[in-house]
UniProtKB/TrEMBL annotation, chain A:
It catalyses: (2R,3S)-3-isopropylmalate = (2S)-2-isopropylmalate. Its EC number is 4.2.1.33. Pathway: Amino-acid biosynthesis; L-leucine biosynthesis; L-leucine from 3-methyl-2-oxobutanoate: step 2/4. It comes from Sphingobium subterraneum. Catalyzes the isomerization between 2-isopropylmalate and 3-isopropylmalate, via the formation of 2-isopropylmaleate. CDD domains: IPMI_Swivel. GO terms for biological process: L-leucine biosynthetic process. Residues 1-117 form the Aconitase A/isopropylmalate dehydratase small subunit swivel domain. This is 3-isopropylmalate dehydratase small subunit. Heterodimer of LeuC and LeuD. One of its GO terms (cellular component) is 3-isopropylmalate dehydratase complex. GO terms for molecular function: 3-isopropylmalate dehydratase activity. Belongs to the LeuD family. LeuD type 1 subfamily.
From TrEMBL, chain B:
It comes from Sphingobium subterraneum. PANTHER family: 3-ISOPROPYLMALATE DEHYDRATASE (PTHR43822:SF9), HOMOACONITASE, MITOCHONDRIAL-RELATED (PTHR43822). One of its GO terms (molecular function) is 3-isopropylmalate dehydratase activity. This is 3-isopropylmalate dehydratase large subunit. One of its GO terms (biological process) is L-leucine biosynthetic process. Residues 9-466 form the Aconitase/3-isopropylmalate dehydratase large subunit alpha/beta/alpha domain. Belongs to the aconitase/IPM isomerase family. LeuC type 1 subfamily.
């Protein structure tokens, strides 16, 4: 996973409340064999509207998404996080997030920033003309106009995101315990390695 | 060491790599089974991160869910293409990923290929006292051999591939104790359906079930696999049987099982894998084997179980209002009326197969009922799908295939088949199937399909009469 320290760039000013994971990625995209490439299916229903923010060239490739309350509610599909990452989004800013989505986002290296509705309103306004700066170390969101909003994050998740450590990476960060266990098992119970026919 | 402990606790303790302050443990995984549906994104994750599979030697890959059960090679030995491009894509991905990551792979036309939960025990890949996982909830089956076995999601599949471990919290323990002898015509399937009827589909949530008592002990390994397989339908992620002489006899000489001196050392260890006298379970369910009769499901949840001699229950007969509503919806979906005798329910499809009931003993039980008989003219399709290529060969060596085909069944290639609508074998909307599989969910066997879960002998009996039938009467008639 790519470490995430600071993210600066334009932001999709979506603003919608209760964006569910079906809206992020519809069920018909779930039969894929890849978590890559789901970006093209992201927000498919919203993109039927010709004035949608995702197809507006102003925001093309934005690393930040700004949304309303309860982002990521509904189905637990990990594909929603895969779709966002695939379209290049590393940070979602909203007043609140569903627990499951927040967990899936974290597992896939996406930072969820919860700030009050007034802050979201202001950032939506800035996003229409200017870039936004997110600093995970400082736990702040800033704009070129001296706006500064701070946010909370679980210390464990913060260190994982800063270090680019997913859960697999974390476990791999301490393989000596696994190696010791394997050596002991190989000595005590050598039959555990399957015979090769 | 003085504290008496459960079998589950013993296996858990033997696999703790690291214990964290919040009680979460890093648990070592001894065996990992892979199939085509839940593994592609896990392999992709490894590839993107530049990671290897830590222990390919502890990993085994077999395609099963998507494979059509019709011929896979033409007369010239060329692969017959699969019509569904997405299913074909998942199969192709596994065929590519396994060798790329150094994992042993049984291909679609290899005699060892089969349903992953049939292949593991059959190869001796599944061993007592091991931890075994697979991206499939019916992994619980392997508990029949005394392995702590459970299903996992795709992110966890990737975690196991990369680290050979999982971060887990310990489960609670449930004892299901059944003493006494099962009556004639009553099988392992009837017994586990009875357990699920009693505890409900959420009864085992958060628990690992240990099956205890003489009724479970007297089951063959195949019967135990049927029981443990459906632990998940009772809400339990895993089931366990203490390994015994039957387990050892079943495993001895299997291709991947220990041999020679290693075998003796393994058996000595396996003999310690019992729940100690006086060990305490969090929950206990006890009944007598004489209370179990041939069972059948009437609704759309595996807990919707009645004796074959019973009738379709009234929704009002359930105390819980939400269950009443669910029962109403189920009756509507199933096209049944309250009070209708289960034996009067006609079926148009018969499915003998799935990871629950596709082993040699299941096929023998069905063939014993079918021998010398023809299926009813009203049956549109009757499928027998052996659980593996080796089961298929064994059955053919015993002449079972001819009994099936002469009675009107189709004899197919191994795979998950009609258990779930992921391959061409489906029950059409509004039609009814007597099925030896494990889930009677709405749409499970195809959109609109109506499923009645039964034992292999009961499925065979329904095939002959064209309606749900008490196999005891049918066999009794000619006995």
């Amino acid at each position: 996973m790519e470490p995430l320290k600071t993210v600066e760039g334009r932001a999709y000013p979506l603003g919608t409340k209760n964006v569910d994971t079906d809206m992020v990625i519809a069920a018909k995209w779930l039969k894929t064999i890849s978590r890559v490439g789901l970006g093209k299916g992201a927000f498919e229903a919203l993109r039927a509207d010709p004035d949608n923010v995702f197809d507006d060239p102003t925001y093309a490739g934005s690393p930040i998404l700004i949304a309303g309350d309860n982002f990521g509610c509904g189905s637990s599909r990990e594909h929603a996080a895969w779709a966002l990452i695939d379209m290049g989004v590393r940070v979602v800013i909203a007043p609140s997030f569903s627990d499951i989505f927040a967990s899936n986002a974290f597992k896939n290296g996406i930072l969820t920033v919860a700030v009050p509705q007034e802050a979201v309103d202001r950032l939506m306004e800035v996003a229409k003309t200017d870039p936004i700066h997110v600093d995970l170390e400082a736990q702040s969101v800033t704009t070129p106009f001296q706006d500064r909003f701070s946010f909370e994050i679980d210390p464990f998740r913060k260190s994982c995101l800063l270090g680019g450590l997913d859960e697999v990476g974390l476990t791999l960060g301490n393989t000596s315990g696994i190696e010791q266990y394997e050596q002991k098992r190989a000595a005590d119970q050598p039959w555990l390695v399957p015979a090769v026919a | 060491m003085t504290q008496p402990t459960t079998l589950y606790q013993k296996i858990w303790d033997a696999h703790v790599v690291e214990r964290r302050d919040d009680g979460t443990c890093l648990i070592y995984i001894d065996r990992h089974l892979i199939h085509e549906v839940t593994s592609p994104q896990a392999f992709e994750g490894l590839r993107i991160a530049g990671r290897k599979v830590r222990r390919p030697d502890l990993t085994l890959a077999v395609p099963d869910h998507n494979l059509p059960t019709t011929a896979r090679r033409d007369a010239a030995g060329n692969r017959i293409p699969i019509a569904d491009p997405e299913g074909a894509g998942q199969l192709a991905a596994l065929e590519r990923n396994a060798p790329e990551f150094g994992i042993r792979y049984f291909g679609d036309a290899d005699p060892e290929q089969g349903i992953v939960h049939v292949v593991g025990p059959e190869q001796g890949f599944t061993l007592p006292g091991t931890t075994l996982v697979c991206g499939d909830s019916h992994t619980a089956a392997h508990g029949a051999l005394g392995a702590l076995a459970f299903g996992i999601g795709t992110s966890e599949v990737e975690h196991v591939l990369a680290t050979q471990t999982l971060l887990l919290k310990q489960s609670k323990t449930m004892e299901v104790r059944v003493d006494g002898e099962l009556g004639p015509g009553v099988t392992a399937k009837d017994l586990i359906l009875e357990v699920i009827r009693r505890i409900g589909t959420a009864g085992g949530t958060g628990h690992v079930i240990e099956y205890r008592g003489s009724a479970f002990r007297d089951l063959s390994i195949e019967g135990r696999l049927t029981v443990s397989n459906m632990s998940i339908e009772g809400g339990a992620r895993a089931g366990l049987f203490a390994p015994d002489e039957k387990t050892f006899a079943y495993l001895k000489g299997r291709p991947m099982a220990p041999q020679g001196a290693a075998w003796d050392a393994a058996v000595a260890y396996w003999k310690t894998l019992v729940t100690d006298e006086g060990a305490v379970f969090d929950t206990s369910v006890v009944f007598d084997a004489s209370e179990v009769v041939p069972n059948v499901t009437w609704g759309t949840s595996p807990e919707d179980v009645v004796p074959i001699t019973g009738v379709v229950p009234a929704p009002e007969s359930f105390a819980d209002p939400s269950k009443q509503a669910a029962a109403k919806a189920a009756l509507d979906y199933m096209g049944l009326t309250v009070g209708q005798r289960m034996e009067d329910v006609p079926v148009e499809h018969i499915f003998i197969g799935s990871c629950t009931n596709s082993r040699i003993e299941d096929l023998r039980a069905a063939a014993a009922v079918l021998k010398g008989r023809k299926i009813a003219g009203t049956i549109r399709q009757a499928l027998v799908v052996p659980g593996s290529g080796l089961v298929k060969r064994q059955a053919e060596a015993e002449g079972l295939d001819r009994i099936f085909t002469e009675s009107g069944f189709e004899w197919r290639e191994p795979g998950c088949s009609m258990c779930l609508g992921m391959n061409p074998d489906r029950v059409p909307a509004g039609e009814r199937c007597a099925s030896t599989s494990n889930r009677n969910f709405m749409g499970r066997q195809g959109p609109g399909a109506r499923t009645h879960l039964v034992s292999p002998a009961m499925a065979a009996a329904a095939a002959i009469t064209g309606h749900l039938t008490d196999v005891r009467e049918l066999v009794g008639e000619t006995a």
